[in-house]
Amino acid sequence: MNAPVPALSSPRPSRTRIALRGERPRGAYDLTLPEIETRVIELGFPAYRARQIWGWAYRQLVAEYAGMTNIPAALRDALAPATPLALLEPVRTLTADDGETIKTLYRTGDGQMLETVLMLYPDRATVCVSCQVGCAVGCAFCATGLMGLARNLSAGEMVAQVVGAAREARQRGRELTNIVMMGMGEPLQNYAETMKFIGIVHDPDGLDIGARRITVSTSGIVPKIDALAEEPLQLNLAVSLHAPGDELRSQLVPINRRYPIAMLMAAIDTYIEKTGRRVSFEYALMRGINDSEEIAHDLAALLRGRLCHVNIIPLNPVDVLPYERPDPAGIERFASILRAAGIPTTVRYSRGLDIDAACGQLRAKELSAAS
Ligand code: SAH
Ligand code: SF4
Fold it and tell me: Separation of 147 CA from ligand 1 center, angstroms?
């Protein structure tokens, strides 16, 4: 039997107000190509200028309108005030894993902090994007959850993170290939902006990130999983499960009270049926919490027969939270029970542990240092 989840010493911050759409700073990265066309035509310029601007922004990755040398200065000057290119200001960049992990802390136009991680692998370059400042779900082991939700990010603020990562990759002779929505926030609680963002980065004349190279990770917002199944783009879906039973999952991932496991699994089955896509289950392994042999067998029983894959993420401990990572033997024991039951399972150690690359951790440190 696993020990009960330890109680938190201090209550979680109450949910802060979500800024209204109009209050968020917006820029050129918030616009689709047709929206830029409309803007360009309204300003009295021919529509083809929009496609040129798109190429400068997403193929050349220029940081300022001034770099768009074949665009008339009058158009650049007219666009810049209302639709700036630079939406996020880099505050700090840290590298780890022999320079293969690059983490950037950004400040938004209204002074919010968020973080983005670029991970270079031999065969791909993946950016981990934040979709909210903080998160309302409040998972027990997550640094982002501790903050509550400050506000949703706009599509453009997500695009800006990807463009920043694409520039970082290119400086190192690499091209960005993959996007994972595994930074701060719950993408399916910021659905419209997340889908707009995905449309922009997917555009074949722009960043051209294929839908199969984009992963949306969710704590299990069932109605939005249903919505995702109806989208024309065939994205990868990752579901943060962390426990095979409702009692424990509700303690770890509080949204489970609203969308319990049976409901979640039904939505996932529909998703698999409609898309034919394999679903990944994320499982943050915590010593004495969700790592027993009994739980591993329960997890195998829950997932058996489904088109899925399990990613075990040995916990990244968060300073102020009481959860710990199991030792390597415990991690391997858990994984081998799943594998023996026929569930494809990978153990994924997080990148950049020494730079607090787990979501929300760097921002949390920056804020506590500043206060
Ligand atoms: N909100 C979404 C996506 C962002 S979190 C979600 O929860 O799926 C990305 C992944 O990191 C999730 O699987 C999340 O549960 C996991 N995670 C959060 N904090 C962690 C920690 N301290 N150690 C290991 N994994 C963690
Ligand atoms: Fe939010 Fe995901 Fe963190 Fe849970 S794990 S609090 S859903 S960011």
Answer: 14
